[in-house]
Amino acid sequence: MEKQLSKKEERLRQSLSDCADVVFRSLQLGEETSALAIFMEPTAGDLMGVSQMVLSFLGESRQQIEKRIKDGNVGLLDCAPLTKEEQVIGAIFTGDVVLCVDGVKEALKIPAKGYPGLGVTKADAEKGLRGSEESFADAIKVNAALLRKRLKCPQLKVLQYQVGTRSQTLVYVVYMEDLVFPDLIPRLKERLEAFQMDALADVGVEQQLLADKPGTLFSQMQSTKRPAFACAELLNGRAVLLVDNSPEALLLPTAYQNFFQVADDAYLHFVVATSLRWLRYVASLGAMYTPGAYVVATMQEPQLIPVHLFLTLQRSLLQTPFGATAEVLLMEVAFLLLQEAGVRMPGEMSNAIGIVGGLIIGSAAVEAGLVSPMSVMVVALSALCAFSVPNQEMAGAYRIVSILCLVLCSVFGTVGLWVSILGTGLYLATLTSLGYPFLHKIDSIYVKPAPQRIFRAWYARKQNPVRLRERWNKWKH
Questions:
Q1: Residue in 376, 260, 265, 262 with CA at minimum distance from that of residue 317
Q2: pLDDT digits over 340-376, tens only?
Q3: Residue 262 belongs to what domain range?
Q4: Do residue 411 and residue 277 come from a single domain?
Q5: Domain for residue 456, yes or no?
Q6: Strand, coil or helix: what is 292?
């Protein structure tokens, strides 16, 4: 960059032409030294940092100001010298104030208010019975501070990356240095540095880019909006990935069992927590295979159900124009439409669409003779099981599997049901999360032994720290 202020201003105005939200403001540091402050108007706030900086420079010569800027000796603010025009433009669009001084080649970055965003709110998306209800915010530095607030130790490391040639989105990789999975951080670093894209909009995009098999049906990474849960997983050897402008965090790597854990499992009595966790496992099976099992029982294997119930089902099916498969498929599609409408409708209208719409459509379809009451109950039970799964992305995959299973069962009967069950298990066994097996035995990867991932064991009064690296090396050999 040029030393002469007028030339620097001319070049920056040319580079930032047609940017109406960028402000150039001239300043005077004493009687001899001129300066220029450049910032984005919505992010600068009251410019208190710039005012303090100007006051600290008053009465000093140009040589003293230049030395202070080069040395970074500018007070307690997080200021930094900038030597390239690209750094200056990047700092402006990051939300900081850039101070250019006449006769000084370096520019000075001064932290400002930053972009407006949603602050720390209540975690409504991940409701629990106990524990903190804090949620991640939009600002990545706030999210990192929420993790540091709970883990006040130097072993908590934060690595910073920039993704997106145009967006320059900040990405933090947070991990515990002495507990993190072996080879996890190098793998993450390699993948993050390999990204070549214009912009990174959200952590959901990052999740798809980091996936070992992006086209797979099942999610390979767990996300959370609760800092308390993220800190608990940091202590289990996992890494937390934060993306600026996104109120979510990715937990890496992820095993299949992680999708059935919730934040308040650690705060409930171990018997209650274990029972609820097993209930979620059963619910996942019900979400996938209840419609298919119903079709098999009514059309292919009637001996599986009691005689009186079978006769009742047959009488109801004879009064409808479609078979059991068509009825269940029709109700599945109707339910998915109601679910999508409930998500897209604003405010309280979504609750009315979900509850009243389901009751009206279900009862109207039965009264019109389009479907049998049992088909409505089966689809409702399958939907209830899907809602019981904590991760809604995985619950959506279960609904798709249930439709595929329904088609196979209607064609092949019992064989189709077993093919669906075995096929799903084998498919999950082929998946990996950042190179770690998705269905691997858990005690070889995680800090906690396998029973604590399937059961929630009780707490001991004295807990000795588990050395993850020793456990991992012992398993490998």
A1: 376
A2: 887 777 766 666 666 666 667 777 777 777 888 888 8
A3: 140-266
A4: yes
A5: no
A6: helix
